[in-house]
Protein: 1-deoxy-D-xylulose 5-phosphate reductoisomerase
Amino acid sequence: MEKVTVLGSTGSIGVSTLDVLNRHPERFEIYALAANRSVDIIFDQILACSPRYAVLRDEQQAEVLAERLRETDSSTQVLAGEAELCRVAAEADTVMAAIVGAAGLLPTMAAVEAGAKVLLANKESLVMAGALFMSAVERSGAQLLPIDSEHNAIFQCLPENHRQGLAAQGVKRILLTGSGGPFRQTPLSELVGVTPDQACAHPNWSMGRKISVDSATMMNKGLELIEACWLFHCQPEQIEVVVHPQSVIHSMVEYVDGSVLAQMGQPDMRTPIAHALSWPSRMVSGVASLDLILQARLDFEAPDVERFPCLRLAREAAEAGGIASATLNAANEIAVEAFLGGKLSFTDIPVVLEQVMARLDNREPLALADVQDADARARVAASALLAKL
Ligand code: NAD
Ligand code: MG
Structure:
């Protein structure tokens, strides 16, 4: 039995992961479930799949959870705090890294350093600490498998030995597709007034609120561009972003002979999750067949640079290297939180990012502490700007 820890089990990816795992009880044992503070959801998950451990980041909520479990016959042990999140990540064979945002950095790195099979949904950890993250993967021998649907698609379309560099394998470029989000066709003059609920109503995917806002600004595609550079050992200019509103093609790889390979499927995260859990074999995910006749058409367009300034900012950060993308990521987390809280307009999200990027200098991080320092400084700078806007 493969021992699996699900970091972020109560979120959108976590719930889909448990759905897939529960279809294959003969193969996977759920070792630990971990989340921030959602007691009700994790309580039901514990009763349904009896993990050895349940970890909540929030110590008070962990107390509440332990109290509630005492009234059941559950033998799951409740733990609390970040150190325990890292411990259950390091102890498993396979770790689904699906905490949202910078909070996922240390637990994901703990899994990497322990040499686990790491299923990476938490793109922010790779965006923040790409070089350190990838050298830890090399050192520990961890198996890194992408869960982000685009990266999982690219992984499926690349030759197996892509680690030796894309050009050496005859790859010309990567076509990173994105739906363009809910505001692809909204008149530019109306963007300033859009609400968090409108931003979170994604046309194709059902996701957590932070990534939904990132999809609406296309910062998600920007973070994915940076993520792809690290995962596939390539330069930003080898990746072209293509808007594909139907989200049926999840990304493509073009080879020097003119062949373009695409991975297609329903927009349902259980496909990449099952692919990564089962890799290199295949297993059932619960996802329905893609009906191409019903789908009828696939459209493509170039991203609108005026509408989506976050995409340009992410490309600039990818080109700058160093701590630039950690700075961008942290400023984005602050701006998105402010937007979701009704304290910042949608169109001011890129304004905050651009100003934070211009104010803070760039350098090469030598250790995770440097990344965490860049993250903290960007949060302070972004919060100070919010107060002025
Ligand atoms: P979500 O908001 O639905 O869930 C987030 C999870 O993280 C929850 O379980 C929450 O309890 C946990 N969490 C939050 N802060 C934490 C903390 N400080 N310590 C421990 N746990 C904490 O988010 P999601 O949509 O499931 O996304 C999770 C990650 O996967 C993100 O990095 C996102 O970019 C990535 N991703 C998501 C999708 C998707 O379809 N939802 C697709 C691709 C990539
Ligand atoms: Mg994605």
